[in-house]
Amino acid sequence: MRICTWNILLGNRLDKVLETVRTHRDFRDVDLFAIQEASVHDGRRDAEAIAEAMGDGYSYFQATAQVFRGREQANALIWRRGLFDESPQVVSLSDLPAVHLTRAERTLLRAIPPQRRIAIRAESDALRVYVMHLDVVGFTHKLEQFRAMLTDMTSRHAVPLTLIAGDLNTFGPPRLRLWRRIRTAAHEARLVELTHGLRRTHWTAQKLDAIYATGAVGTTHRAWTLNVRASDHLPVFADF
Predict the structure, then answer these.
(1) Which pTM was predicted?
(2) In total, how many domains does the chain have?
(3) What's the whole-number mean pLDDT along residues 21-41?
(4) Which of 230, 116, 226, 233 has the alpha carbon at shortest distance from 171?
(5) Cβ atoms of residues 45 and 76 within 8 Å
C-alpha cells in the first residue's frame, strides 16, 4: 500500500500540484492521498481536481475547517475506489477539554488565537485513516489535538490497520520536549512512525509532516519526499 500526505498551501499553486500528480511516477501507485490546506478554485474543490488528475478509479472527500483570510481551508482525502464503503466523517480537534497550560503558552494563545482544526476519518472493516492538520501555535494545545485523534481511534471498533497522516506543524528544534511528548503519545498508542527517518518536509528544512501506522504494517516499509515546489511543504510518501 502507498500513502501520500501533502499540505498544498490553499492551492496557491494548484496548477503545479496537478502537474505533479499527473506526471510523477510516485503518484501512479498511490492508494491514499491525505491533503491539508485544500481550498476551492473557480467553484471547484481542490480535492475533486486532484482526484481527476490522478486518473480513473479514485474517490474524494473534502471538509472545510475554517475560512482563513477569506479562503476556505480544508482537509481532504483521496482514495482508491473500493477501500471504504461509507463517506468519511469529520473529527473536531478544537473542542478540547480544559488542559493545564503554562503561563507563556496561555499568553501566546491569547495573542494568537487558535485556528479551528479538524481531522477526517475514513474507515472500513479492514482500514481506518485519519487526515490531520494541527495548529501552528501552542505546545500543549497541539499535543491535545493529537491526543484527540488517539482518543477517537481507541473509541472505534478494532480494525487490522490504522493510519494517521498529515501536518503536525512541529516548528522549532526537533529535540524540543513537546515533540518528544507527541512521539511518546504515539508510542503509547502503538503507532509506528513510517516517516521517522525523514529530516525535511518543508522549505524551511524542518520536518512538519508525518505518517503513523498501527496494526498490519509489516516489518518492511520506506518513506521519502518528492522535491517539487508546488507548495511550502513537500509531498511525503510511505510504502508498506
Answers:
(1) 0.91
(2) 1
(3) 96
(4) 233
(5) yes
**Pick from 51, 108, 60: which is nearest to 83 by CA?**
60
Amino acid present at 200? R
Dist CA 73 CA 40 (whole Å): 9
Residue 95 has pLDDT above 80, yes or no: no
Compute the distance between CA of residue 128 and CA of residue 164 in angstroms, rounded to an integer: 9
Cell numbers for 19: 502537474
Least confident window among 16-20, 92-96, 99-103, 213-217? 99-103
Predicted pLDDT at 142: 81
Helices (H) and strands (E) in the chain, counts: 5, 14
Q: 113: pLDDT confidence band, cut at 50, 70 and 90? A: low
CA dist list (Å): 168 to 74, 81, 188:
15, 27, 18
User: Residue 174 belongs to a domain with what CATH number?
Assistant: 3.60.10.10
Residues 6+ apart with CB under 8 A from 201: 195, 207, 208, 209, 225, 233, 234, 236
Q: Tell me the residue range of the domain where 228 lies.
A: 2-239
Predicted pLDDT at 101: 62
**Range 98-111 average pLDDT:** 62
